[in-house]
Amino acid sequence: MKALVYRMGGLGDSLLVYPVLEILTRKGYEVTVWGNPEYFQLAEKSGFCKKSIFYEPADQFDRIIVFSKNRELLHNHKTIYVEPLPDKRIWIVKYYLKKLNFERESFSEKLKLPFSIEKSDKLCIIHPSSGSQKKNPEPNFFLQLEKFIENCGYKVLYISGPAEKYFNKALFKNSIYLEDITELTKTLLQASLYIGVDSGVSHLSSYLGISSIVIFGPTDPVVWHPIGKNVTVIRDENCQPCFPNICTDRQCLRREKLIEKIKDLFRS
Fold first, then answer.
1. What are the φ/ψ torsions at residue 80 (nearest 5 degrees)?
2. E-strand stretches of the chain
3. CATH label of the domain that carries residue 239
4. Which letter does DSSP use for residue 126 in this model?
5. Is the dihedral of CA 119, 204, 247, 168 positive or negative?
6. Strands across the sheet with 51-53, in order?
7. Which of 60, 64, 85, 267 is the residue whose CA sits 20 to 30 A from 117?
């Protein structure tokens, strides 16, 4: 049996459909993903799909799942369409599984990959940005955070990638640019701690089982929190999610509040 899954989107969007791929594969399907192959190469390495492609395949499939609003895409009697966004506050992974009648199916909360990477003791990787400037705290927050983390005995390494259009490397003394997902994964696996915002890199860190602190601002962690058991989400609960039409003052990303929340995590 063959299955085709269509999902275009960024790294985080792609990772959040990995459980669907895993379940289909466990059910005996040979899974092809039509999306961004860069973001699905880890699904191939973990055995969740056979291959990933960027263009519409010519093959015939027994089952087709399309995560898109476009009801004409791959339209036939075998196609199941899933709206990419839920119409209520529910974790996006649970929403996908419910739409596909996979609610009772289990999935891995840690991505298993054929890499043997030695962790660096007390290495904290910080990803200080995302593809949307609306979700990013001010750079001074990270500089203040860096001082605190170093005082706790950690070495800090900043990472950035092609999505960080607004990333200012000059502000951060110890930073590296990573474009390849496999190299990014191997770098993250060295960390004993990861801190980032709501981004694809944060989703990946959590999925890899790294102890992760993920900062949510205008986006809703109820819907978009990462896969993984070793992740802590921090957010100002007194401020309602408002993405993409964000408020002007962004109280949810106030530097003092975020620093205090992270300090509380270290104290506990």
1. -110, 125
2. 2-7, 30-35, 51-53, 63-67, 79-82, 123-127, 155-160, 175-177, 193-197, 212-215, 231-234
3. 3.40.50.2000
4. E
5. positive
6. 51-53, 30-35, 2-7, 63-67, 79-82
7. 267
For residues 44 and 51, the answer to whether their CB atoms sit within 8 Å is: yes
Partners of 53 in beta bridges: 34
Q: Which of 178, 174, 173 is nearest to 189 (CA)?
A: 178
Q: Half-sphere exposure of 60 toward its Cβ, with a 13 Å CA cutoff? A: 1
200 and 132 Cβ atoms separated by less than 8 Å: no
* Total count of domains within the chain: 2
Token duo for residue 140:
């001074």
CB-based burial of residue 260 (10 Å sphere; 0-12 exposed, 13-18 middle, 19+ buried)? exposed
Looking up tokens 């966004």 gives: 85
Q: Are 228 and 212 in contact (CB under 8 A)?
A: yes
163 in a structural domain: yes
Quick check: is 38 in a domain? yes
Comparing CA positions, the residue from 18, 36, 34 lying closest to residue 26 is: 18
Residues 149-175 have pLDDT tens digits of 999 999 999 998 876 655 666 677 788
Mean pLDDT, rounded, for 103-116: 94
Helices (H), 18-100: 18-26, 37-45, 92-99
- β partners of residue 67: 82
pLDDT in tens, 24-75: 999 999 999 999 999 999 999 999 999 999 999 989 999 999 999 999 888 8
Domain that holds residue 13: 2-99
Res 122: pLDDT:
93
Q: What's the rounded Cα separation, in Å, for the pair 191 and 182?
A: 15
- The two structure tokens encoding residue 38: 């860069």
| Residue 152 and residue 243 in one domain | yes
Q: Are residues 73 and 147 in the same domain?
A: no
